[in-house]
Amino acid sequence: MNENDRSITGFTMLAHGIFHTYELSIPIFIVVWLDAFDVSAFVLGIVVSIGYGLIGIGAIPSGVLSDAYGSRRLIVASVIGMAGGFSLLALAPNVVVLAAAVIVWGTAASVYHPAGLSLISRGATQRGTVFAYHGVGGNIGTAFGPLLTALLLLVLDWRAVVALLTVPALGVVALGSLIEFDEDAAASTTDGGTAPTTLESVVSDSKLLFSTGFLLTFLTIMIYGVYYRGLLTFLPDMIGDLPQFGTYVVLGRAIEPAQYIYTGILTIGIFGQYAGGRVTDHVRTEYAFFGTLFALGILAFVFIPSSGWGLAPFLFVCVGLGFFLYATAPVYQVVIAEYAAADVHGLSYGYAYLGMFGFGAGGAALAGSLLTYASETGLLATLGALAFVGAGIVLSLLTVSSDSR
């Protein structure tokens, strides 16, 4: 990578890591909140869905603003806002204030992905490689944020843990302000279009986007978003309900293996993100997209049964789940870049994350409903079927891709 690519990589890895630190520490806290606020999984699923859903709803304005004004300022504001949401969360006396805090966090978090991904797509010359490292940065936060949360909960009250999680955001803002780069280094030599700054131009560019293979990509991302959120939101609780992973008392302290298995799944995602990004430099992205979704469908169906096959087979399935769940993200990010002009990359990623986090947030409510009124098996079977539907849509994308690009 050249110097500008390295600078963009470092800046986005930091911000991406803090986003996922917050996003995936929430499922760790859910186990605590179920008791602390005396609510059902259904109610808490709805609350979390609102916050996660705002990430998608705010993605369109964020995408438009990043096209018009650049990404750096938006990314810094996003990190500060996410820390503010968690500060309020630490003070929540009831589930209503809890919901308000998650809303603040979700609104700020909505800014990151359209701004960060459009920065990479317009500024990085080795786009696939930078997307890969960007994904690694996110998964470092994905894995070690929940791990840090679980470890701190062993010795501290959950409110103190939430408050401590605001500290890394200050470090990210400080370090990020020292990194310099050209936001349009790659786009300036190719597209050189003008960013949409009016409602009319946004509508016009949106129609152009959705008249191509981007529509099929968008539908697939919506499905993947439901799978992602539906799986991860209650995953620690589902693993904890398996008989071999109940609570153990060690040296007078309650230890829940499910939290560490969950963290291990997220840690494997580091390798998945890197592999997914790098493979797009060598393999047609539609093939990679189909492969990851098809694998996720199989893994969802065998997840619960594998727990009865022995510890090693179950952990093998967990490894596969973590790998393919996160390998999918950089793959579809490159697909989006291939189907959208550089001057509307922010808008295209805004739509993508409206699907991923907005529509996808319904996965948390879906999971809470199925866990409350059906079973873990029913939830996993539903998610597996959705992944197969997504893989089928990607096959349709292959048939039109030559005319869409």
UniProtKB/TrEMBL annotation:
One Pfam family named in its UniProt record: MFS_1
Assigned keywords, A-Z: Membrane, Transmembrane, Transmembrane helix
Keyword Transmembrane: yes
Domain called Major facilitator superfamily (MFS) profile: residue spans: 1-402
A GO term from the CC aspect: plasma membrane
One term of GO molecular function: transmembrane transporter activity
Keyword rRNA processing set for record: no
InterPro entries for this protein: MFS, MFS_dom, MFS_trans_sf
Transmembrane portions of the chain: 12-34, 40-62, 98-119, 131-154, 160-179, 208-228, 258-275, 287-304, 310-329, 350-373, 379-400
PROSITE patterns: MFS (PS50850)
Name the record gives this protein: Major facilitator superfamily protein
